[in-house]
Amino acid sequence: MSYFLLVVACLAGQPGTASCSQERIALPEIRNESACYLASRLRLQDWMADHGDRRVVDARCSVVDLKAAQNGAAPRATGSLP
Questions:
Q1: Which of 24, 47, 71, 73 is the most buried (most CB within 10 A)?
Q2: Sign of the alpha-carbon dihedral angle for 22, 2, 77, 30
Q3: pLDDT in tens, 42-59
């Protein structure tokens, strides 16, 4: 399993979703969903500090089963961050 933080953010002050993008932030040290949730909250705070021109629309800890991904399976979200 490979965990990552998925952040969807839009340019602040821009209406609609045309200015939105998503970014995956790897969490290689994470081994379970609880740790992913906690680490994601910290990484999201750092990400927001570095991207002050963006507003977060969605952020969630996600996981990819590496064996399933090789067979074409999509990542699954483990839950949104508050």
A1: 47
A2: negative
A3: 999 999 999 999 999 999
Q: Give the span between the Cα atoms of 16 and 49, in whole angstroms.
A: 23
| Residue 68 pLDDT > 60 | no
Beta-carbon contacts of residue 4 (< 8 Å; ≥ 6 apart): 24, 25, 26, 27, 61, 62, 63, 64, 75
64: enclosing H helix or E strand: strand 54-64
Helix, strand, coil fractions of the chain, as percent rounded to 5? 30, 40, 30
Please count the other Cβ atoms lying within 10 Å of the Cβ belonging to residue 8: 15
Which amino acid is residue 62, in one-letter code? S
Amino acid at 26: A
Type of residue found at 27: L
CA distance 59 to 11: 15
Q: Which two tokens stand for residue 65?
A: 């089963």
